[in-house]
Structures are given as C-alpha cells and as structure tokens.
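FAQ: What does a ligand-bound record look like?

Like this one, built around iron/sulfur cluster:
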Amino acid sequence: MDENKFNERIQDLVEEAEDKPVRREKKEKPQLKESIYSLRLDELKDWLEANGEKAFRATQIYEWLYEKRVKSFEEMSNLSKSLRDKLTASFAVTTLSTIISQESKDGTIKFLFQLQDGYSIETVLMRHEYGNSICVTTQVGCRIGCTFCASTLGGLKRHLLAGEIVEQVVKVQQKLDEVGERVSHIVIMGIGEPFDNYDAMMNFLKVINHDKGLNIGARHITVSTSGIIPKIYQFADEQLQINFALSLHAPNQELRQKLMPIARAYKLDKLIEAIKYYTEKTGRRVSFEYGLFGGENDSVEHAEELSKLIKGIKCHVNLIPVNYVPERNYVRTPREKIFAFEKTLKKNGINVTIRREQGSDIDAACGQLRAKERAQETR
Ligand code: SF4
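The answer part, i.e. the structure of the complex:
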C-alpha cells in the first residue's frame, strides 16, 4: 500500500471512530507508513506478485520478521536490494515506539507505546507459572463506556490496524528475547472492544496463530467482548479453537445496564441466547468475566442470581476483584465477601476462579497508565 493510500486509511479510521468528517489538510498529516505486520502471509504473497517479485519471498520475509525478529528491511540479507527498497518504500517494520515501560515486583511489565500519528496505547506482559502472557490493545480509547473503566473516559480516537496489534506482541517478544523467553499466551483484553474492530482483530489472530507467523496456538489465545451480540454470532460461525470470554459483570439487566451502558443496546436475555449459540456451535466453553465492585454486584444474592442466569451453560466464571479507579467511585470488595461469592457459585455447581492480581504497584488496571500519560500531556 502506498503512503498516500495509507494516510487516507488512517483518516478513514479516525472519521469512522468519531462518526464525523475530519478536515483533510495535507500539511497537518504526519507521514505514515503501513506496518508490514498488517499483512497475512497470503496478502504479502499477493503484494510481492503485484510488484514483480516471486511469491516465495513472502515466507523469507516472514522468517525475518517473526523468527529472527529483525528491526529493519536492510537486515533481510537474502532479499535483493531492489526488493528491500520496494518494501522500504511501502511499509515500515517499526511503527510503535516505547514511551515508558514499568516493571512490577511480580515481573509484570506494562508498556506505553506511541503510534505513528502520536496516539499512545498500552500493552501488558504478565508472568505466570504456565508462561508469558500479553494483554494487547485493539483501539485507541473505547466508545463502549463501561462505568468502571478509565480507558473509555476520552472516548474512541481510532481503531488500531492489524499490524499495530501484531507489533505490540513483536515488541514484547523482542524484550523477552534479551532473556531467552517466549510469549506463550495472548489475551485480547487491553484497551478497546475487539469486536468493535472485528476485521483487524481477525487478521491479527491469523498472523499470530500462523505457523510461519508468531505460531501462538489458538488455545493459548483469548478474546474478550463486552457483548456485541451480532459479532458473537459471527465469531461463533468462524469455528475457531480460540478461547472466548464475555465481560458479564452483572446477574440482571438492570444492574448490567447501570455498569455497562452497552447493555441498553444488547439486552442480557439476548446476550445469553448468543452465548448459548456460541457454546453449541463451537463445543467450547465460555468464560464469564465478573468484576466485583464493592456494594454494587458482590452480594451472596447476586451470586445466587448469577448461578441461575448461567445454569446449564458450558462455562467458567472468572471473578475479578476490581482495583479502585480514581475517576470512578467504585471500591474494592472485601476479601471475605469475595470468598462468600465464590463459595455460593461453587455450591451451585459453577466452575469459578478468582483472578490473581498482577502489577498492582504499576497501574496495571486497564487504561490507567495511558490516562496518566494523557493527564501529563495536558498539563
Ligand atoms: S472495559 Fe473494555 S469495553 Fe468496557 S469501556 Fe473499558 S476498554 Fe471499553
């Protein structure tokens, strides 16, 4: 893709996100290039053939990007100079630059990356006994408006391109290369609603899952949605082996729409129908993410109501004791109430775990680092 086309595409994404025209003044546009990581292997082959090159070069380029993890086309020494020049003219290997990385005492590292057009996004590396997991961001900001989330405070600025999502993983992998470790798991639970940027998310999945790409197994990837019902049906029909999570957070319609305004558009009863369709179509279980907000949704009665709502669904409930978010008034649920909630679900035969808190000393809650950076920018 040439530079002008790519700049226009970025503008289109901004316009779509803001739902209004954006002035197209050439002098104000930064010079942007498409990330090479946006291209699936088949797309790269097509691009090569369209540019007078052999399709098999795509595999070589993938090896340089995803196995050797080079940072420039110049390093791709088995490609001709003319091909390297063509690639350089059309694509960038690096479109993210690291603004800050904060490391927690438990090994969690939170990265704040800057995009080519100046926006910043967050990515988190978490260390588990079973491996290294990355939480990626899919949008700059978010328009879903969950009342407990700092990421939505500034609204949606734009969708990320597939390559900008892939590059978050590559950047973190390059960091892990320094200590001989590998990214083993991906969770698409960072800033943004992945199903609101569906096509880019699907391309991202194809690149990281491909054996010539980052080769991360489907069962090691989890995608989470706030509940965009039509996309749940679409995703079910893809029949992937990818883990699927729904941010549920409430056992009834009234409470859910208080916590998550999206529930006004997508009602809880219809959402549960869509989830049942997903589990039946794929044969896979769903994870219900349930944030515990002190005094809001964390009583034993709520746990009983939740048990009834999801009874019979092949599922697992992940309880998330939510950190205090400075911009909102929710407080943390006390320990004994967390355990009482868990015990009630277990008594009702529901699989349940309590999420271990990671990186609490480094603003690891969704959106906090970016919000802090934005506050500093506006001072
Ligand atoms: S929790 Fe996720 S979907 Fe909800 S506003 Fe925040 S980023 Fe968006």
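Follow-up question: can I read anything off the structure? Yes, for example: Residues 142, 144-146, 149, 151-152, 191-193, 226, 366 surround iron/sulfur cluster (CB under 6 Å).
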